[in-house]
Write a structure and sequence with these properties.
Elements (H helix, E strand, L loop, with lengths): L1 E17 L8 E18 L14 E2 L2 E2 L6
Antiparallel strand pairs: 1-2, 3-4
């Protein structure tokens, strides 16, 4: 399975956390501008031979992520 997502760049003018015990009243508010430039993240899910079928390998720009367990 393959998936690509675009996230635009954003410059925040101000940001405020709205904390509340009630989940429906919790969140944040703020204002800023979104820019045309951004980043595209690509995801490719493949099946690998593994004893439990749950191997996950993360690569960034074709290189194995250092935080991925051996």
């Amino acid at each position: 399975m393959k998936c690509s997502v675009f996230a635009p760049s954003h410059i925040t003018g101000f940001f405020e956390i709205k904390d509340n015990k009630e989940p429906l009243k919790k969140g944040s508010r703020g204002a800023g501008i979104a820019l045309d430039n951004g980043v595209v993240t690509n995801l490719k899910l493949t099946e690998k031979d593994s004893p439990n079928g749950s191997n996950i390998e993360v690569t960034i720009n074709g290189k194995k992520d250092q935080k991925t367990p051996p």
